[in-house]
Specification:
Elements lengths: L15 H10 L3 H14 L3 E3 L41 H6 L19 H9 L6 H12 L11 H11 L6 H10 L14 H10 L5 H12 L1 H5 L3 H8 L3 H12 L23 E6 L2 E6 L7 E3 L1 H12 L5 H41 L1 H6 L10 H8 L3 H10 L1 E4 L2 E4 L7 E3 L5 E3 H13 L9 H10 L6 H10 L12
Parallel strand pairs: 2-5
Antiparallel strand pairs: 1-4, 2-3, 5-6, 7-8
Helix pairs in contact: 1-14, 4-5, 8-9, 9-12, 13-14, 14-16, 16-17, 19-20
């Protein structure tokens, strides 16, 4: 049975302007430039660069009569809200001043052939029949960016039959792999695993006693070698510790990823453009915003002339009224976008300024041990903004410091209490752990339990499992894999 009734409901909805602002805040400098260019292309009511210096009569900004229109009211369009006689927008001067040559320039990249194209070009220099050529080309296409063929030969035989309509055998594919593909440059390409990759590189070198032993180690004791069971290797191959060390040195000179070393690799280089710059001036920290985050934008003057023409017209047609409605929408969009950029700049500067003051000692000295424990809530409470806003700034922005370009998120860390009851940053503990591992005796590397005991002696009571977690975050292998002879 259907019923009608009244219900009260309290809802909170984000306005389009708020959504636009949040999306702009999380964009780094380069992505922000792309978004700015997109807005300039889509909204003809928005222009970049300084405004032309023109004189306007007061009547230009007066409200005009539009009594004959049902869609446009005089109070709907107030040109004062959109236009400014200033040559430089006000929000531009609120952050900092920049000269024209402060803008970062584009870096040209040299074009080159790709890794796989280089391999295909080498195939043209090999004399093979049509079937062998098809197999070799298919094998080259199966090589990944590291230079390996990760699939089994039987699977490649099946793919050749179904995809290329080439019916062959495992023996023939293996022969083409060894005699053609694995003879290409860079040496080691086309290997099916690390062991085969290293052996290919060793066998093309000039024969020496060290390389002979290295080949023997890889062919017959690869597992012991990978796990660094050096004593077992000495006993099994009846060699000395010195000879084993020389063979390991030869293996360490090899490239485990031949594909990644391709000199002509044309992958696009990633360029980090810092959103902020922190300098030390006379012992004090100075924060500036990248000029790319402070574009010069203003509302189009041409649209003002269109409105003026509509105002002065004695007769107003429906098409003219539709045009004025379109102009109003574009003017509103331009105004909202400029306001969003202004708020974006204020948010970025407020957030980074708070972070800079919080980590003042670290930024003045560069000593990571002076990083204070800091979480998103600390900064959000100080600048009286939501945690999600601080997170948007921290996750995607970079800052240039006297000690290199840092991701803002790196300044945040959890805290723990030392034996004196003081709160210290986990970054400080990781730095000490890294130092202890670097200074250990590599013939007898320290286990996680011993590392925990050493840090406890230094005043940091940490469990062994926590040491293991920090070690993995620092990309430090376990003690057995850090062992050297």
């Amino acid at each position: 049975m259907l019923k009608q009734g009244l219900h009260f409901k309290l809802l909170q909805k984000l306005s389009p302007q708020q959504i636009q602002l949040m999306k702009l805040i999380e964009l780094p400098a380069q992505a922000f430039e792309e978004r700015l260019q997109q807005e300039l292309e889509e909204n003809p009511g928005l222009e970049s660069g300084k405004e032309k210096s023109e004189e306007f009569d007061e009547q230009d900004t007066d409200e005009f009569d539009d009594s004959g229109s049902e869609k446009i009211d005089a109070e709907d369009i107030n040109i004062d809200e959109y236009l400014s006689d200033d040559e430089i927008p006000s929000y531009k001067t609120q952050s900092t001043n920049y000269a024209a040559d402060d803008d970062d320039k584009q870096i040209p990249f040299a074009a080159g052939i790709t890794f796989h194209q280089s391999l295909k070009d080498q195939l043209n220099t090999v004399r093979v029949d049509e079937e062998e050529g098809a197999i070799a080309e298919f094998l080259v296409g199966s090589i990944d960016d590291s230079g390996y063929i990760r699939r089994e030969i039987i699977d490649l035989v099946d793919d050749l039959a179904f995809i290329q309509n080439v019916f062959t055998t495992e023996e023939k594919v293996t022969h083409i792999l060894h005699s053609v593909v694995q003879k290409m440059d860079p040496v080691g390409v086309g290997a099916r695993n690390l062991k085969e990759c290293l052996l290919i590189q060793l066998k093309v070198k000039k024969t020496t006693k060290e390389r002979v032993l290295a080949i023997d180690l890889l062919e017959h004791s690869f597992d012991h070698f990978a796990k660094k069971h050096y004593q077992k290797l000495i006993e099994k191959h009846r060699t000395t510790e010195t000879a084993l060390k020389e063979a390991i040195v030869e293996i360490s000179k090899l490239n485990p990823k031949p594909g990644s070393s391709f000199a002509g690799n044309s992958k696009i280089a990633e360029q980090i453009v810092p959103d902020f710059t922190i300098r030390i001036i006379e012992g004090d920290l100075s924060l500036t915003l990248n000029a790319r985050n402070a574009p010069e934008l203003h509302v189009s003057r041409e649209y003002n002339n269109l409105l003026k023409g509509y105002q002065e017209a004695t007769t107003k047609t429906k098409s003219q009224k539709d045009a004025v409605q379109f102009i109003k929408q574009k003017l509103d969009g331009a105004k909202w976008f400029i306001d969003a950029i202004k708020q974006r700049q204020q948010t970025l500067m407020a957030t980074m300024g708070s972070i800079m003051n919080y980590q003042e000692q670290y930024l003045l000295t560069g000593d990571e041990r002076k990083l204070r424990p800091m979480i998103l809530k600390d900064i959000a409470d100080e600048i009286q903004m939501d945690i999600s806003t601080v997170s948007r700034v921290a996750n995607s922005k970079y800052v240039a410091t006297p000690y290199g370009t840092k991701r803002i998120k790196e300044f945040f860390s959890e805290s723990m209490t030392n034996d004196q009851g003081e709160e210290v940053s986990t970054r400080e503990i990781k730095k000490i752990l890294e130092t202890v591992v670097a200074e250990e005796n590599k013939k007898k590397p320290l286990t996680d339990e011993k590392l925990a005991a050493i840090l406890k002696e230094k005043g940091y009571p940490i469990a062994r499992r926590t040491i293991a977690k920090y070690r993995e975050q620092l990309h430090i292998p376990v003690a057995r894999l850090r062992k050297e002879i």
